[in-house]
Amino acid sequence: MTPRRTVVRHAPGKLFVAGEYAVVDPGNPAILVAVDRHLTVTVCAGDSGYDGAAVVISSDLGPQAVPWRRHEGRLVVCGADDGGRARGALGHVVSAIETVGRLLTERGLSLPTLSVSIGSRLHDNGKKYGLGSSGAVTVATVDAVASFGGVELSADERYRLALLATARIDPKASGGDLAASTYGGWLAYRAPDRAFVLDLARRVGVDRTIGAPWPGHTVRRLPPPDGLTLEVGWTGEPASTASLVSDLHRRTWRGTASHEKFVETSNGLVGAAITALEAGDRPGLLHQIRAARQELARLDDEVGLGIFTTRLTQLCDAAEAVGGAAKPSGAGGGDCGIALLDAEAAHDISHVRQRWATAGVLPLPVRPALEGIEE
Question: Are 369 and 139 in contact (CB under 8 A)?
Answer without folding.
Answer: no
